[in-house]
Design a protein that fits this description.
single chain; alpha+beta; 2,3-Dihydroxybiphenyl 1,2-Dioxygenase, domain 1; four-stranded mixed beta sheet; 20% helix; 24% strand
Length: 200
């Protein structure tokens, strides 16, 4: 059987284990502004006797994040070392990202996080080897990173590059417009090179 020809529409949600559901709910709803769709306690369904599920959303869909928890606080999880804030020392999710519309919203979120005592562990930064403000890394977006109470690293970003599928490079019109928005003259910079889709 052949693989379906239609590509995926995108990555829709992430499920993360949390050690204290009440603490995590306060963080994701009060600090990040998520809404709760539903909470199912451990044991509500025979298939999940030990696991509770809290579905939260930032869009019109039922959930964008699924907080997975055990009854009350989970001493076994709390006893584990905190996640190493996004390093690659261990297997698992490195980070997940939340997209905002534009630079003004991005700056507003940075100010809000700082006002609420949330440490920015990296950024704000422009991930780009070609943009004049770029940090030399890859990804082609503007980003900042912080952690939830269990140490899961979260990215807020805007201005993700739009791709030209014919060249596997950044759409030159998008790239020129981003430079103009950043107060730069696009004619002073070479076009962004195409990417290598596979290892050499």
């Amino acid at each position: 059987m052949a693989r379906p020809a239609r590509p995926f529409e995108g990555i829709q949600h992430v499920a993360i284990k949390v050690s204290d559901i009440e603490r995590s709910l306060r963080f994701y709803t009060e600090v990040l502004g998520f809404s709760v769709s539903e909470i199912r306690q451990p044991g509500e369904h025979p298939v999940l006797p030990d696991v509770g599920l809290c579905f939260i959303r930032c869009t019109g869909l039922h959930h964008d994040i699924n907080l997975v928890f055990r009854r009350g606080r989970d001493p076994e999880l709390e006893a584990l070392p905190k996640i190493d804030q996004g390093t690659t020392k261990d297997l698992g999710i490195h980070h997940f990202a939340l997209r905002v519309r534009d630079r003004a919203e991005f700056n507003g979120w940075e100010a809000w996080l700082r006002e609420n005592g949330i440490a920015i562990v990296r950024g704000p930064v422009v991930h780009s080897p070609t943009h004049p403000e770029g940090d030399g890394t890859w990804g082609e977006n503007r980003a900042l990173y912080f952690c939830d109470p269990d140490g899961h690293r979260i990215e807020i970003f805007c201005e993700m590059a739009e791709m030209d599928p014919r060249t596997n490079g950044i759409d030159p019109r998008w790239y020129a417009e981003r430079l103009r928005q950043d107060g730069q003259d696009p004619s002073r910079f070479p076009p962004a090179p195409p990417f290598r889709p596979v290892a050499p």
